[in-house]
Amino acid sequence: MEDRSTPGLYVELCDVDPGDYRAHRAPELLERPGVERVSWWRTCVPGRRELPMTVADGTLLGLAEVGPDFTTPEVPPGTTARHFVRHRRPSQGVLTGEPTLGLLVVWISPRTPDRAASVRDWGDFVHIRHIAAAAVPGFTQVAVYENTAPGDPRWMHFYELDVEDTDGAYQHMARHMARYFGGSRTEEFARWADYGAPGGELHYCNTFNRLGHLEGARA
Asked: How many helices (H) and strands (E) does the chain have?
């Protein structure tokens, strides 16, 4: 998150009241080995449909910042959970000194194993690189995490924002990038936007606003 390089993230997508998550699930996760901080986030657009996603979300995202000794807990009914570890390539963006108030979470995989390198290179050297270079308003750090389990998604693109209108900043991204590339019909913009061309498949994409967090003694 904004003040540290987190080696792992355990993510839960669920329909849980924020007060209940804070009172029950967050302390449960914080007691597990390797967990340093647990935060919970309101889904900005539950059931988002403008992209062809394969994963159902919910109204709340739970996020545990974890170390190498973390093991995945039993997943509550109705919850979609994934454990990711930091990819070897560095994060991109800027450190503003402001707290992270919003997230954009993207889950993506190669359609076939032989396209993994091309999708990863597109993500790092084209898509994320230009978002950082264009200084999209509100966006600070972008890090890539890899699923610890086989199957989809292969990676999580984890965007941090320091503005309260998280979804507004996300919606503005395409317009900002179009200006950066000299228009939305340029080859450069198309290459930046098209995850399918290098062989990618999108599984999940949504924005979140921060609600609260708990920290452990090791944080």
From this structure: 6, 9
Q: Name residues whose C-beta falls within 8 Å of residue 217's C-beta, 6 or more positions apart in sequence.
A: none
| Residue 179, C-beta contacts closer than 8 angstroms, at least 6 positions apart | none
* Whole-number Å distance between alpha carbons of 34 and 30: 9
Q: Which domains does the chain have, with CATH numbers?
A: 8-215 (3.30.70.100)
Distance of CA 76 to the CA centre of its chain: 21
215 Cβ neighbours under 8 A, 6+ residues apart: 30, 36, 37
Alpha helices per DSSP H over 41-181: 116-121, 128-134, 166-181
Per-residue DSSP letter, 115: G
The string of pLDDT tens digits covering residues 59-98 is: 999 999 999 999 999 999 999 999 999 999 999 999 888 9
HSE-up (13 A, CA, CB side) for residue 102: 22
Round to whole Å and give the CA distance between 181 and 176.
Answer: 9
Region of residue 199 (left: phi > 0; alpha: psi -120 to 50; beta: else): left
**CA 181, 182, 188, 194 torsion: positive or negative?**
positive
- Write the pLDDT tens digit of every residue in 108-137: 999 999 999 999 999 999 999 999 999 999
Strand partners, 92: 142
CA 41 to CA 59: how far, in whole Å?
9
**Among 10, 151, 167, 9, which Cα is nearest to 91's?**
9
